[in-house]
Design a protein that fits this description.
This protein is an all-alpha fold. It is built from four helices and no strands. The longest helix is centred in the first third of the chain and has 131 residues, at about 5-135.
Amino acid sequence: MKQKPGKNGLGALLTLIAIIGILFSLFGIAITWYMKPKIQSTVYLLIDSIDQIMINTEAGIVVLDGALEGAAENLDIISATLENLNSTIDSISVSLGSSADLIGGDLRLTIIDTQTALSSAASSAVLIDNTLRIIAALPLMPDYRPDVPLSISLEQVSESLDDVPQSFLNIEQYIRETDDGMLQLQTDVTQLSSDIRTYENDLVDTRAILTEYDLILDDLREQLSNFRSYTATFLLVVSILSTGSFFLLGIAQVTTLQQAADYRKGETVTVNLSEIQQE
């Protein structure tokens, strides 16, 4: 009997591989349970940090929503004020139009009629003055010598009113121009009020978006909270599965050790005498 060459070397190699595999399995199991609490703490820290960021974001959204609410209220007050101003301007415009019609029409015509009446009265006053002078010339009659005769006085009054109709026309023109300016102002105020309403609606839409963001953050925080509560269980299951894998790997190395032992013992081979002689 003799032992085939090379079997001892292969057995030693398999033994070395099996030992390394067993050590690797033990090391893997140890590392798994050593790292589990550290990984769990790191995951908790990461989740808590993200949750704190979300809390700060929600606080910022609350502050921003409050600012937008105040801005919307201020815009609503401004819009209401502009609408009141628009109504006031409209009333003033109507009053100015009526005043212009009154001054440039009725009052001016009244002055002209007054001047006509004064001129007629002055013509009649000439006769009265002449009659009074004739009467005053009679014996025993009082002297009639006024500083300004009645006819002349009436003419002077009529002449003093010559510029009044034109003044009324000028005043009417000024009022008309003011009315045009008020109409332009009313147009500008109306446009500004419309723009303010648009801005206010935009703020309302923005607040609605912020509300949606707040709901999304609440949902994400709830999911993070659930994930945090499941983290310990998840890591435990992963650790158990990892330990089982390493354990099975170690068991497989025991089988390899058994095979290596068989190789190292060698195989018994029966050799015939003729084979020895041939060698």
